């Protein structure tokens, strides 16, 4: 499964990059395939391991912020691996035609 999620601290002002970096660090240290862009971090793995990482990413932000917002979108497709890369490659291939 692939999960795209965003963790945002609330009540800490406009500059939230430091808090977001803490959450992304948890994802990167998980060892699961992941990508971060301007809006979301995507992570790939099985349900339990991905949700555990999301929970820990929220928890690390929650330690320093009075409130946390979580936006999550999941692509649950059993038997598919390397979707994080292959989905993008498919789109790029079609764009090149």
Characterise the protein shown here.
A hairpin with a 4-residue loop joins strand 2 and strand 3. The chain contains three helices and four strands, in the order E-H-E-E-H-E-H. Strands 2-3-1-4 form a four-stranded antiparallel beta sheet, covered by helices on one side. It has one domain (2-96): Alpha-Beta Plaits, CATH 3.30.70.930. The chain is an alpha+beta fold and 97 residues long. It is 45% helix and 26% strand.
Task: Give the SSE layout.
Blueprint: E1 2-10, H1 17-30, E2 34-36, E3 41-44, H2 47-62, E4 67-75, H3 83-96
Helix pairs in contact: 1-2
State the helix count. Answer: 3
Could you tell me the CATH topology label: Alpha-Beta Plaits
Straight-line N-to-C gap? 28 Å
Task: Give the biggest sheet.
Answer: 4 strands, antiparallel
Radius of gyration: 15 Å
The low-pLDDT segments are none
CATH class category name: Alpha Beta
* CA-based shape: globular
Mean pLDDT, as a whole number? 95
What count of structural domains? 1
- How does the helix and strand content classify structurally? alpha+beta
Task: Give the total of beta strands.
Answer: 4
Could you say what the CATH architecture is? 2-Layer Sandwich
Instruction: Determine the fraction of residues in helical runs and give it as a percent range.
Output: 40-55%
Order of strands in the sheet with most strands: 2-3-1-4
Question: What is the H-and-E element order?
Answer: EHEEHEH
Strand content: 25-35%
Domain Thiamine-binding protein: 3-92
Protein name: MTH1187 family thiamine-binding protein
Family: Belongs to the UPF0045 family.
């Amino acid at each position: 499964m692939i999960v795209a999620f965003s963790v945002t601290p609330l009540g800490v002002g406009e500059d939230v990059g430091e808090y977001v970096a803490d959450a992304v660090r948890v994802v990167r240290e998980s060892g699961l395939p992941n990508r971060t862009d301007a809006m979301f971090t995507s992570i790939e793995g099985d349900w339990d391991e991905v949700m555990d990482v999301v929970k820990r990413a929220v928890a690390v932000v929650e330690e320093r912020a009075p409130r946390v917002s979580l936006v999550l979108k999941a692509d649950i497709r059993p038997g598919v691996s390397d979707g994080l890369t292959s989905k993008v490659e498919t789109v790029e291939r079609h764009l090149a035609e």
